[in-house]
Amino acid sequence: MLREENCAGLRLRGADWFSWATAGGSNVILLTTDGGVAEVLVTQDEAFVITDAIEYDRMLQEEVPVGFRFINHPWQDTNFRESFVKEATHGGLVMSDKVHSKEVNLAPSLVQAKRILCPEEMERYRVLGREAAEAMTETLKEADPSWTGHQLAGRGAEALWKRGIHPALTLVGEERRLPLHRHATASHEPLGSRAMLVFCARRHGLYANLTRFVYFREPSAQEIRAKHDLAAIEAEVFAATRPSTSLGALYEQIAIAYARFGYPDEIMKHHQGGPTGYLAREEVARPESKMRVEDGMAFAWNPSLTGTKIEDTVILNQGKLEIITVDDAFPSFYADDRMRPDYLVRL
User: Fold this and answer.
1) CA angle 249, 251, 257 (to 5 degrees)
2) What percent of the chain has pLDDT over 70?
3) Are residues 38 and 81 in the same domain?
4) Together in a domain, 282 and 325
5) Which domain does 166 fall in, by range?
6) Alpha-carbon distance 38 to 283, whole Å?
7) What's the pLDDT tens digit per position in 38-57?
8) Beta-ladder partners of 332
9) Which of 210, 246, 264, 316 is the most exposed place for a label (fewest CB within 10 A)?
10) Which CATH number covers residue 280?
11) Would you say residue 101 has pLDDT above 90?
12) pLDDT at residue 66, as a whole number
């Protein structure tokens, strides 16, 4: 690939690209950034992991598989990496995910390759998806209507951490705020009679994305209808998620489905998701999106209506969608040709 692009090196600094290149390693220290404390450099002859003396032993012993040559530099030397990259690539052109100086952007073929999971990645993803779903079930079965949104988010994060999963995102919509905000960050307000909990759960660089609801009362007829309508809308985009279909065409399919079920304006109130993997969304579907679906990609679609939402992580594997964020202990209902998460009702 480097020869095809007339490049002497490939430099990967982002947390997503580092995990992809190292088969699930992590360069993350601060969870709220998209960069890390180490980077990968690939030349036409060798693959390096470059890090400083603070991180060297841990990265070598715990994070990165064999096959890389480690380059360790004093943490005080802020110029070392640039000098090393220039020397290792003989001053040639370098592709990078975070372009610096005379570097160039990654080739589109490489960006697309990152989104196509190999069998080993799929297996890691399945385990992550199942455990993230189990953490969700555990959290909502313990929840109490007197808890604040902060408490529910904290309990969810604890359930993820004890499984070795980063709580990259824990959204909570409490009873009052749930109909008001599609991205309801946790607050000091009590949960009340119902609540939404959303996870973007990361391990080995992969993201498992899912949304669930807990009710401390019986759902209303309108809420039950919304649940079934959303599952039907989701079923249409699931059916359309097939190889060679553009992301823009999938967006249009969702828009048509919203209108068919009587909600033509709801698509304007929140994004609908898209391919996932080493980012919570590798790309969000928009009308103009050109990216095409390929077998081996993962997706997290998230259609929503006022006060409710449906979301899971799926893999397109040999032409069929496999939902991986599933816990059989969580209630479900039949929709189209699959089981979908129900409201967890706790009276």
Assistant:
1) 105
2) 100
3) yes
4) yes
5) 119-345
6) 25
7) 999 999 999 999 999 999 99
8) 341
9) 264
10) 3.90.230.10
11) no
12) 85
Token pair, residue 4, equals 């095809």
Choosing from 114, 138, 167, the residue where a domain stops is 114
The amino acid that residue 161 corresponds to is W
303 and 212 share a domain? Answer: yes
Nearest C-alpha neighbor of 82 from the set 67, 26, 27, 91: 91
Give the total number of structural domains in the chain.
2
Q: Are 121 and 206 in contact (CB under 8 A)?
A: yes
Average pLDDT score over residue span 129-141: 98
Query: Given pLDDT bands bounded at 50, 70 and 90, which one contains residue 197?
Result: very high
What pLDDT was estimated at residue 214?
A: 98
**Both structure tokens of 219:** 């759902």
> Residue 148 in contact with residue 187, Cβ under 8 Å?
yes
Residue found by looking up tokens 């589109």 in the block:
108
Tell me the two tokens of residue 289.
């999106």
Q: Which tokens in the block code for residue 11? A: 């430099």
pLDDT band (50, 70, 90) for residue 141: very high
Tell me the HSE value of 306 on the side-chain side, using a 13 A CA sphere: 9
Q: Kindly provide the b/e burial profile for residues 81-93, where b requires at least 16 CB atoms within 10 angstroms of the residue's own CB.
A: beeebbebbeeee
For 115-128, write each residue's pLDDT tens digit.
999 999 999 999 99
Which of 159, 214, 174, 153 lies closest to 342 in space, CA to CA?
214
Distance CA 206, CA 201 (A): 8
Q: Looking at this protein, which amino acid is placed at residue 336?
A: D
Same domain, 54 and 95: yes
Query: Do 286 and 189 belong to one domain?
Result: yes
Encode pLDDT of 4-20 as tens digits.
999 999 999 999 999 99
DSSP-derived 3-state class of residue 48: strand
Digit-coded pLDDT (tens) for 245-267:
999 999 999 999 999 999 999 99
- Residue 70 shares a structural domain with residue 125: no
CATH code at 46? 3.40.350.10
Predicted confidence at residue 138, as pLDDT, reads: 98
Q: Where are the alpha helices (DSSP H) in the chain?
A: 15-21, 56-58, 80-88, 108-114, 119-142, 149-161, 221-240, 247-260
Whole-number Å distance between alpha carbons of 60 and 83: 22
